[in-house]
What does this fold into?
Amino acid sequence: MPPGRLISFPNAFQRRMGPLQLQDKTKPGHCRFLTVSLVDPTYRLCSTRNVPPQQTGWTGGDGAESATQMDLGEALELREDLVKEHARKDEGVFELASTLSFSGFS
It folds into this structure.
């Protein structure tokens, strides 16, 4: 790739880098990777100062506030559903990406 060029792609695409080597081994060289995360500057992040404890053992109260909290079983169930949802999304992206052809990469 010529110097000064940038390749960018969405995080949904999987990628694999093979071994790299210099075309001219008599000259010094390197390969750098830069990860850029785009964020919405108008979105306010929630601070831990404003979030109540998530584990029922940390509340130390009479249990009234834990009525809205989920227990470990519910959390693990929700996590499993999320993992399945991500797997379905990844399969869909893979199907779409497998129909695309990218030129200029070896």
